[in-house]
């Protein structure tokens, strides 16, 4: 189940509207609907999902005490949100940094103009949960805020852990190649990793074009769309950089 939209009742409609226009701008949110003095609808993908309205004349209550978490495409977006929100009048509730909620959980928190706790987060683990799902990988073991293990058939094969406090480094420059059962699985991995919304080709019924021109919403970076490589006969693969710049490949031979 997913939410269709959320609406806040603001003590000052215009102050709240200006705050969110600035704070959510780094995430690609824009005002898609506006009725003067009545409501404002913001969204990042052509549909308003976050609404603000003024208080009604009678028997109404300001939205307060809420915790709303928005997903960022990258850690840079988290940083940009925090700076923009503070400049727009928000109050700091936690500077950008890693949290112990889950491995790679990077977030920032700001109180809005009515005291609601607004979070923007980026989680490296979520990339792998989505990207490896077409291969049958699921999270089979986890220690909250410490380590997460993914694998098929209940067997943990791929582990993600939190960076230790001292004398540790983020894994970068690693090339991991996962075996796929079919070319179709390679295609599905690429689409899931890139979180493809639609192809930019004129023929919109296509899911992929020769130039791999996609509209993307994730922080992953393309490193080679699905296709045959000349490494071996029938070597069909796709490549994506994860949030840390590691080269993730899925191949069917």
UniProtKB/TrEMBL annotation:
This is Uncharacterized protein. Residues 2-123 form the VOC domain. Residues 10-51 form the Rhodanese domain. It holds the Pfam family Glyoxalase. SUPFAM superfamilies: Glyoxalase/Bleomycin resistance protein/Dihydroxybiphenyl dioxygenase. Signal peptide: none annotated. InterPro entries: Glyas_Bleomycin-R_OHBP_Dase (IPR029068), Glyas_Fos-R_dOase_dom (IPR004360), Rhodanese-like_dom (IPR001763), VOC_core (IPR037523).
């Amino acid at each position: 189940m997913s939410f269709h939209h959320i609406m806040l009742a603001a003590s000052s409609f215009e102050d709240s509207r200006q705050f969110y226009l600035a704070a959510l701008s780094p995430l690609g949110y824009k005002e898609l609907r506006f009725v003067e003095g009545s409501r404002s609808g913001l969204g990042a993908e052509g549909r308003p999902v976050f609404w603000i309205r003024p208080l009604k004349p009678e028997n109404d209550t300001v939205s307060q005490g809420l915790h709303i978490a928005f997903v960022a495409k990258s850690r840079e977006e988290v940083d940009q949100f925090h700076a923009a929100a503070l400049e727009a009048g928000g109050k700091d509730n936690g500077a950008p940094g890693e949290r112990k909620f889950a491995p790679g959980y990077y977030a920032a928190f700001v109180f809005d103009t009515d005291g609601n706790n607004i979070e923007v987060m980026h989680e490296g683990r979520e990339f792998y949960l989505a990207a490896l799902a077409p291969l049958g990988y699921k999270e089979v073991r986890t220690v909250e805020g410490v380590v997460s293990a993914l694998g098929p058939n209940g067997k943990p094969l791929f582990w993600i852990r939190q960076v230790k406090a001292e004398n540790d480094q983020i894994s970068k420059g690693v090339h991991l190649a996962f075996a796929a059962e079919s070319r179709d699985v390679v295609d599905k991995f690429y689409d899931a990793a890139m979180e493809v919304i639609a192809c930019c080709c004129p023929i919109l019924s296509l899911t992929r074009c020769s130039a791999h021109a996609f509209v993307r919403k994730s922080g992953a970076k393309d490193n080679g769309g699905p296709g045959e490589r000349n490494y071996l006969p029938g070597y069909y693969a796709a490549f994506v950089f994860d949030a840390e710049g590691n080269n993730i490949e899925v191949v069917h031979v």
